[in-house]
């Protein structure tokens, strides 16, 4: 169990660092958006690349912050039953949800989107808009991000099993901490 918990710590550290770095992309997108609008209204000059870069930055924020959000228990849950369960049952629900839903869906999307990226890369796909960006780097972010989300799901499952076997404390219901 110690080796698995060490793996979990490595996954957590990677996703936390990526998430914290990715939140700076929000500032970059806002500044780029302000610059784009300023140039358009003051100088009557626009750039499709600048507009597409804003889309890419916001997309990267959502893709790269999803694993960190899972780690921090920040994803929305339907809490009708879950919120009333004792800690041990919550952990079991999290484990089964991760195994039955999160991991299969993340792996399916990561595997399926890899082909989508490869086709884009082979064709050096770029925007149809004049002066637009190449698209394959953003398409690469999709399988990478879902791979990271699957890894974080695995980390949460490991921590859940560790809590059930006494290698970690059970979540604190009062604090909502897992």
UniProtKB/TrEMBL annotation:
Example of a GO MF term: transmembrane transporter activity
Positions of transmembrane segments: 21-43, 49-70, 91-114, 134-151
Keyword Acyltransferase: no
Places the protein is found: Cell inner membrane
One GO CC term, this protein: plasma membrane
Cited Pfam families: DctQ
Membrane topology: Multi-pass membrane protein
InterPro entries, per the entry: DctQ, TRAP_DctQ
Alphabetical keyword list: Cell inner membrane, Cell membrane, Membrane, Transmembrane, Transmembrane helix, Transport
Sequence ranges assigned to domain Tripartite ATP-independent periplasmic transporters DctQ component in this UniProt record: 34-161
Top-level taxon: Bacteria
Quaternary state and interactors: The complex comprises the extracytoplasmic solute receptor protein and the two transmembrane proteins.
Job description of the protein: Part of the tripartite ATP-independent periplasmic (TRAP) transport system.
Family: Belongs to the TRAP transporter small permease family.
The protein's name in its UniProt record: TRAP transporter small permease protein
């Amino acid at each position: 169990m110690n080796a698995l918990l060490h793996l979990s710590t490595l996954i957590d550290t990677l996703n936390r660092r990526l998430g914290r770095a990715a939140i700076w992309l929000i500032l970059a997108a806002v500044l780029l958006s302000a610059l784009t609008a300023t140039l358009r209204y003051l100088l009557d000059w626009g750039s499709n690349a600048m507009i597409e870069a804003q889309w890419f930055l916001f997309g990267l924020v959502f893709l790269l912050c999803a694993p960190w959000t899972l780690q921090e228990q920040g994803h929305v849950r339907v809490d009708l039953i879950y919120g009333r369960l004792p800690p041990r049952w919550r952990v079991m629900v999290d484990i089964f949800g991760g195994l039955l839903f999160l991991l299969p869906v993340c792996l399916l999307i990561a595997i399926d989107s890899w082909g989508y990226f490869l086709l884009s890369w082979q064709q050096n796909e770029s925007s149809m808009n004049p002066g637009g960006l190449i698209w394959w780097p953003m398409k690469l972010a999709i399988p990478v991000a879902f791979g990271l989300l699957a890894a974080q799901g695995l980390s949460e499952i490991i921590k859940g099993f560790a809590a059930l076997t006494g290698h970690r404390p059970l979540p604190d219901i009062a604090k909502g901490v897992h």
